[in-house]
Design goal:
single chain; alpha/beta; Rossmann fold; 6-stranded mixed beta sheet; 4-stranded antiparallel beta sheet; about 25% strand; binds adenosine-5'-diphosphate; binds magnesium ion
Length: about 260
């Protein structure tokens, strides 16, 4: 575990435990030789356990940069980030990796599955880095595929699956180490409308079961399946509001025509 100084421990203990994610005046600079990109310009956001948040905003507004910080893939240039009350701003690379593996599942726009590996093996992969036996890893992978409704596709390779099915495999992979937070960066960006709604239905069900979900989308319709939307603009929070008259994915799917091919 992290070696924390006395003052850091004090700060960590004083964070209320209901805020899973607490970003305080987070700035991020990218230094590119001569120039410096100021990608995040003072982001302060609390996200509590069990929330379902959609981050919106134009391309280049800092959404992915912020998600990378939330997911402990990167650190703020200044400001602080608390995850489950722990200040992760000052952790080493190894400490970040440990926190990430324990707490966070990632889903990406491009699925990022290994092509020569079955659905089950793809889902099993993250368990190889966790302290579980091969047997337990396979059990968990089957359970995770069950959760996304793909138990009957476990021996298929990614090329034998539709885009929506591949994204479900990726969601199962993100869940296999039982994270408390699921982060998804444009998870429906490569999918048609109906499949996108189905994926949002799965994220909604996981959220109903207690998982904290934060996703990025640039589509208004998709953001409305979340419970809260946060709009970024030029590296700042422009709007932060609750979704009213939230529709469920099931309701929307019933109203959409079924494609016949
Ligand atoms: N690795 C990087 N190196 C340099 N600049 C980057 C890097 N990643 C993002 N940026 C810049 O930071 C800003 C925010 O990018 P990003 O977070 O990817 O935005 P979004 O996901 O909202 O499209 C952009 O100006 C982008 O060009
Ligand atoms: Mg992005």
């Amino acid at each position: 575990m992290a070696t924390m100084s006395r003052s850091e421990i004090d700060v960590a203990i004083r964070q209320p435990m209901d805020a899973t994610i607490r970003a305080l005046d987070v700035h991020k600079y990218y230094d590119l030789g001569e120039t410096r990109v100021h990608a995040l310009r003072g982001i302060t956001i609390d996200i509590s356990s069990g929330e379902f948040v959609a981050i919106m905003g134009a391309s280049g507004s800092g959404k992915s940069t912020f998600m990378n910080i939330l997911g402990c893939l990167d650190k703020p240039s200044s400001g602080r980030y608390f995850l489950d009350g722990i200040d992760v701003s000052n952790l080493t690379k190894d400490e970040l990796a440990a926190i990430r593996n324990r707490n966070i599942g990632f889903v990406f726009q491009g699925f990022n599955l290994l092509s020569r590996t079955t659905a089950l093996e793809n889902v099993e992969l993250p368990t190889l880095y966790a302290q579980v036996s091969k047997e337990e890893g396979e059990d968990r992978a089957r359970e995770a595929l069950d959760l996304v409704g793909l138990q009957d596709r476990s021996t298929h390779f990614p090329s034998q699956l539709s885009g929506g099915q591949q994204q479900r495999v990726a969601i199962a992979r993100a869940l296999v180490n039982k994270p408390s937070i699921l982060l998804a960066d444009e998870p429906t960006g490569n999918l048609d409308s109906r499949t996108s709604v189905e994926i949002m239905g799965i994220l909604g069900r996981l959220n109903d079961a207690g998982l904290t979900v934060v996703l990025v989308t640039h589509e208004h319709d998709i953001s409305q399946f979340a419970k809260r939307t946060i709009q970024f603009r030029d590296g700042r929070v422009r709007r932060d509001e609750l979704v009213v008259n939230r529709q469920t994915a099931t309701e929307v799917l019933e109203s959409l025509p079924v494609e016949e091919d």
